[in-house]
Design brief:
Largest sheet of chain A: 7 strands, mixed
Distance between the termini of chain B: 40 Å
Structural class of chain B: mainly beta
Largest interface: A-B, 23 and 22 residues
Strand content of chain A: over 45%
Number of helices of chain A: 0
Radius of gyration of chain B: 13 Å
Order of helices and strands of chain B: EEEEEEEEEEE
Strand content of chain B: over 45%
Shape of chain A: globular
Oligomer: heterodimer
Number of strands of chain A: 11
Helix content of chain B: under 10%
Largest sheet of chain B: 7 strands, mixed
Radius of gyration of chain A: 13 Å
Number of strands of chain B: 11
Chain lengths: 107, 119
């Protein structure tokens, strides 16, 4: 199985900050990497797929990048509604696997 | 507007069974593969199972293989998950999700249904 290691597990930031979350795959997954946002008590929301492509309706302050087996989610100009937990997921091969999550909290 | 509405969760004893359903609307259901993902209380996301648009191809996580069965009824726009031989570690919110067309990652999620396995 492909392991997804996400870091950090939590961070605190202020409104307007730029936040970076990293996900490392245990083996090559091409760009088959997605990012999800989840708020407490709510269903996950799909943000990015294919490492870079924004899902419909997702604000452009969210962006994704890739370098080998390292993937990054960047949130620019952090907004109040962005405080949540973020998960990466590889879909290069079954079983599909998620990272452990990164909780973004208000500083 | 895409909508996914799960139902069928509840409290069940270890060894018991449940059938979860997900009613889909707002898109051409038969054209999309679908997924079940679960989340144990206070834990992260765990992929459970996928099914192709026709229903002919299915995939399962090792943790549920042989106990869970995914199916779909395209005439009723409904996705199902039959869960048998339930264990305490199956306690979770179960989400159905629509997959990106031509891909196997999620584009839209339902609100989830809670399954609690306890005596």
């Amino acid at each position: 199985d492909i392991q997804m290691t996400q870091s950090p597990s939590s961070l605190s930031a202020s409104i307007g900050d730029t936040v970076t979350i990293t996900c490392r795959a245990s083996q090559g997954i091409s760009n088959y990497l997605a990012w999800f946002q989840q708020k407490p008590g709510k269903a996950p929301k799909s943000l990015i797929y294919a490492a870079f492509s924004l899902q419909s309706g997702v604000p452009s302050r969210f962006s994704g990048s890739a370098s080998g087996t390292d993937f990054t989610l960047t949130i620019s100009n952090l907004q109040p509604e962005d405080f949540a937990t973020y998960y990466c997921q590889q879909y290069d091969s079954y079983p599909l696997t998620f990272g452990g999550g990164t909780k973004v909290a208000i500083k | 507007e895409v909508q996914l509405l799960e139902s069928g969760g509840g409290l069940v004893q270890p060894g018991g069974s449940l059938r979860l359903s997900c009613e889909a609307s707002g898109f051409s259901f038969r054209s999309y593969a679908m997924s079940w993902v679960r989340q144990a209380p206070g834990k992260g996301l765990e992929w459970v199972s996928d099914i192709s648009g026709s229903g002919a191809i299915t995939y399962y996580a090792d943790s549920v293989k042989g106990r869970f069965t995914i199916s779909r009824d395209n005439s009723k726009n409904t996705l199902n998950l039959q869960i048998n031989s339930l264990r305490a570690e199956d306690t979770a919110v179960y989400y159905c999700a629509k997959l990106v067309r031509g891909d196997i990652t999620m584009s839209f999620w339902g609100q989830g249904t809670l399954v609690t396995v306890s005596s």
